[in-house]
Amino acid sequence: MNTTNQFSRGILRFIVLSLLATICTAGAATERFSIIITPRSGGYVLWQTSTPIASGSMGKTGSFTFNKYALVDLTFKPNTGYTLGRVMELTEGPVTLDGNNHAQFGPVDHSPTFIARFNPPTPTGVYVVSSTNNALAAVIGDISGVYSGTTPLTLTKVARTYDMTVAEDDRGKLSAMGTIQGLQQKPTTGTMTSNLDYANVGGIVTISGTPTGQLRMAINGAVDGKPIKGSGSAQTPLVLATGTATAAIAAPMVTSTPGLNITASFRANFNGTLVAAKNAPYFIPVGTPAQSQFKKNWSLNLSLIAKYTKSGAEYVEADAYVTLPNQQSIIFPIQKVKYSAKTGYRLNLTHGKTNPGGKPGKHTSILIRNMTMTQSAGKWVITGGTINYKFLGQSGTANLIGFL
To answer: What is the pLDDT of residue 376?
Structure first.
């Protein structure tokens, strides 16, 4: 089409619209645009009409009137942090917008209703959730390590050197191996040996928010060459206290060394004599070297990262790993998450691996619910939520804010 024809058609269109507007004005016929804005704080709409010549801004759901057959311009503006989702006309469906989120309608001969839907801001950032920041969090205890030294006389009648290695697996189960002076073990097959190897000596669980050792042991061997055979169990909160040291085969002795309160039951035949107790309380001192083996701090590193599809749509990925008290890191699979203005983020972190090529674990999980966030000084900060965590056979629930 040449320039002359384009100009002629433009003039003709202007004349027709002017005539229609004149007729409409003479008859005082009007139409109305109703616009629903959701959510209320999501954005606003700029409007402009040709007859009458008027303009305005709508920051909430409302309407405006104009003369029949007028031209109407609408421009949709998201508020800071929000993005425009889509615009719908209730009877006609989606509205096509230009690159400036603008559309022109007309000549308008009816009164439509539009819905402008804005997408809430998407919180992103890097966060560290650490037990060292929350004194009310359930402690996750790890006692794996090498224990060596000499038994106190409050525990044994004769001071005995020992060198034991204790291991705690991802379920909190304990195993121990090493040597204790004068103690020998008779394996199921083989001869008596001083190399002690106990594959299962109980484990650690959470009771009333406290890591608690639930120990058990069977013995078949000798002490100083005298035969001993029996079994026993014990329970102790892994919390250091002070008290009067007591033991099964030693006299009570007052000690200032912190220790553990233990409730024990055992039954054994020692050199032909029955030794037994049921739910007996004992206080066992724990020296400084052994105290240093108790590890409790852990942390969760969480990255919320904005990603985009090929069409430009935004979504968020959660990339997280937890560092356990034994300094082992569990890497969780990356997952897509969606933020809700009412309920925040929900993250269910499971099937983590100790290394990218390893097998997914079954005993480590973290569930974060209702993690709400707000912007402060240009950054997203966590304002609420709860965290449920389970690893090393122990678990806890706490307010997420207490960890930050």
So the answer is: 85
Percent of the chain with pLDDT over 90: 57
Q: Do residues 164 and 283 both lie within one domain?
A: yes
Q: Would you say the pTM of this structure is higher than 0.85?
A: no
Range of the domain at 114: 3-119
Question: Is there a single domain that holds both residue 244 and residue 228?
Answer: yes
Judge whether 395 and 389 are in contact, CB under 8 Å.
Answer: yes
Q: Total domain count for the chain?
A: 3
Same-domain check for residues 269 and 196 = yes
Sorting pLDDT into bands at 50, 70 and 90, what band is 361? confident
Q: Do the beta carbons of residue 154 and residue 254 sit within 8 Å? A: no
**Are 201 and 175 within 8 A, CB to CB?**
yes
Q: How much is the pLDDT for 3?
A: 46
Domain finish residue from 228, 261, 291: 291
Q: What is the CATH number of the domain that holds 82?
A: 2.60.40
Same domain, yes or no: 345 and 378: yes
Residue 125 pLDDT greater than 60, yes or no: yes
Same domain, 311 and 342: yes
Summarised one tens digit per residue, pLDDT across range 3-57 is 445 445 554 554 444 545 444 444 569 999 999 999 888 899 999 999 999 999 9
133 and 192 in a single domain? The answer is: no
List, for residues 248-288, the tens digit of each pLDDT value.
Answer: 445 555 556 788 888 999 999 999 999 898 998 888 878 78
Q: Does residue 164 sit in the same domain as residue 205?
A: yes
Same domain, yes or no: 272 and 340: no
CA dihedral 396, 397, 402, 404 (to 10 degrees): 70
Last residue of a domain, one of 259, 291, 323: 291
Answer yes or no: is pLDDT of 64 > 70: yes
